[in-house]
Amino acid sequence: xxxxxxxxxxxxxxxxxxxxxxxxxxxxxxxxxxxxxxxxxxxxxxxxxxxxxxxxxxxxxxxxxxxxxxxxxxxxxxxxxxxxxxxxxxxxxxxxxxxxxxxxxxxxxxxxxxxxxxxxxxxxxxxxxxxxxxxxxxxxxxxxxxxxxxxxxxxxxxxxxxxxxxxxxxxxxxxxxxxxxxxxxxxxxxxxxxxxxxxxxxxxxxxxxxxxxxxxxxxxxxxxxxxxxxxxxxxxxxxxxxxxxxxxxxxxxxxxxxxxxxxxxxxxxxxxxxxxxxxxxxxxxxxxxxxxxxxxxxxxxxxxxxxxxxxxxxxxxxxxxxxxxxxxxxxxxxxxxxxxxxxxxxxxxxxxxxxxxxxxxxxxxxxxxxxxxxxxxxxxxxxxxxxxxxxxxxxxxxxxxxxxxxxxxxxxxxxxxxxxxxxxxxxxxxxxxxxxxxxxxxxxxxxxxxxxxxxxxxxxxxxxxxxxxxxxxxxxxxxxxxxxxxxxxxxxxxxxxxxxxxxxxxxxxxxxxxxxxxxxxxxxxxxxxxxxxxxxxxxxxxxxxxxxxxxxxxxxxxxxxxxxxxxxxxxxxxxxxxxxxxxxxxxxxxxxxxxxxxxxxxxxxxxxxxxxxxxxxxxxxxxxxxxxxxxxxxxxxxxxxxxxxx
Length: 646
Known about the structure:
CATH architecture of the largest domain: 4-Layer Sandwich
Distance between the termini: 34 Å
Number of strands: 15
Number of helices: 24
Structural class: alpha+beta
CATH class of the largest domain: Alpha Beta
Strand content: 5-15%
Shape: globular
CATH superfamily of the largest domain: Aldehyde ferredoxin oxidoreductase, N-terminal domain
Mean pLDDT: 95
Radius of gyration: 23 Å
Low-confidence stretches: none
C-alpha cells in the first residue's frame, strides 16, 4: 500500500562549499519500506554516496542527519535522529550516533526528513532552519565557544530561547580529536564515532532549527490508541527492582535513585579502570545519597514518557550553586569519574559537565585516561612523564587539565588526541611501556568502550563486541534485565559454565540486536521499548498507522533489522574489515574479575565459537564475517551483491 503519511517529501542537501541548499525527493517507496529511516536510511545514503576509501574528515564524505518515520509523531519517545558518517577511530566502520531532546522533532515539524552535508565551508558556519526557510549564518564569533555557550548565544541571536533547538560542536569537534561529539538541547548528544570531528572538519559549528508544522499521519486516531496501550506496558507498576522495566528504573531521573540497584549491586561499575569492582559499589551509593540532598530536575525529550535526563544543582559545600546538565544513562558518571577512581559526588557532576561543554563522548576518550591513571598508580608513569600532572586515583583536577590539553593539542594531553590505538605508542615509546599501556586500555576495535564493566554479563559484552559500529550498547542481550519484549521472562546467568552455555547466549544477542536496529530506524528512543512486553508489536503497528502500510507487521520489522545489520557489515566489506577485527579487544575485557560470578570464568576461550554461531545466525561467511550473496538476495538487497564474495 502506498505511503499516506509520516514521511516528509524530501531531505535537505547542503553543499557547504557552494553554500547551497536543495530539496531532494526521498528514495522510492520500495527503499523506504526496506530501510525505513534513521540508521537504516542513513546507511543507505552512506553506501550509495560516500567514497569507500574516504576518511571521516574528507570533504566528500557526507555527514547525514536522518529522522525516522515516527520522529515527531504520537509514538512514545519519538524524539530521535540518527547521525551517520565514517568512524574516526575505527577506520573500516560507519559512525552512528543517536540523540534525543527536541532537535529531531523540530526538524521534522519544519517539514524535513533529514539533512545531508557535503563539502567544507570556507569559514565557520551555522545553518538556520526556520520551517521551510533555510539560511547559512556566520559562526566565526562562536568558534571556540563550548556547547553550552554556543547554544545560548544562537538562541539569543535568533530571538527565541523556547522553540529553537541547537545541535552543535564544542572545542573538541573544532580541534578534531577522538571522541568529539555533537550536543543538542543541553542534556543530549550523539557521541559514538567521533561525529563532532566529522562536523568540525566541515567548518560547521551548529544547526539551529524551529518547526511549527505537524506530521501527517495515515491513521492518527489509531496511532494515538496504540501509543496509549504501549504506555501502559511501559510502566506496569513493578516495585521489585528485579522486575522493573528499564523505563521504570530510569523514569524521572531514575539513575539518581536507582543507580545502586541497576549497576552498583551487580558490580558492573567501571571502577578504577576495571581493577576494583568492590570500590564501584560505594561509588554508586555516594552518588545516590548526594543526589537525594541536591536539587534534581528531570528534563524531557519530545513526547518522552520517561525523562531520564536531568539537571542537578549542588546545594551544599564549596561547590553549592553549580548546576550540571546530564543525560539519563550511567555512562557519564562512570566514564568521567569512576574509571579514574573519582568518587566525590561534586567532582562527578563537574567532570561530566566539563566533557559535555567541550563536546567529548566518554566512551572513546575516557579509556585513555583510565589506562594512564592505572599506569601512574602502578609506578609505570611519573610526574616528569605527565608534564607535572598528578594522576593518583581520584585526582579530578588533573583530569580536567589533561582533557583540556588534549583539546588544545598541547602538552602531555596532546598524546590523547588521536584515540585509543595511537595513545599507548605516543605515551609509552620512550619509556618502553607501550605494551603495558595497551594491556590496560579498555578498547574495542580502536573505538573505546561502553562505560560499564560487563565481564560478568557475557551477552551484554558480546553485543557490544559485535555491534559493527565500534563499542556501543546495541542490543544488550539477556543477562542484565528481563527481555520480555522478546519472550525472555527471566534474566539469564551472566557467566556460562561451559561451551554449550556460552554459544547458547548468541541467540539472545542476535535477537536483541536485530530488534534494536529496527527501533533505531524509527526515530524513537529504545528506552521506551527494551524489555517492554509487546513493544515489537506496538512499534510495528505505529509504523503501519503512521505511514499507511496497513500490512506492516512484527515479522517485517525484524527483517528491517536484519537489513540494517547487513548495511553495517557492507560498510565493513568496502573498507577492509577482516574476521580477526571482530576479536580486536583489549586484554582487560578478557580477564576474570577476581570477585563475583566471573572470578574464575572469563569469556576468552569461548569467543571463537560464539563468533561462528553469531555469523551463522546472521547468514555471514564464517571465514570473513561479511554478508554472503545468498543473504543479501534473501533480504532483497541485490544492489549490494557485488560488494561481497559468494
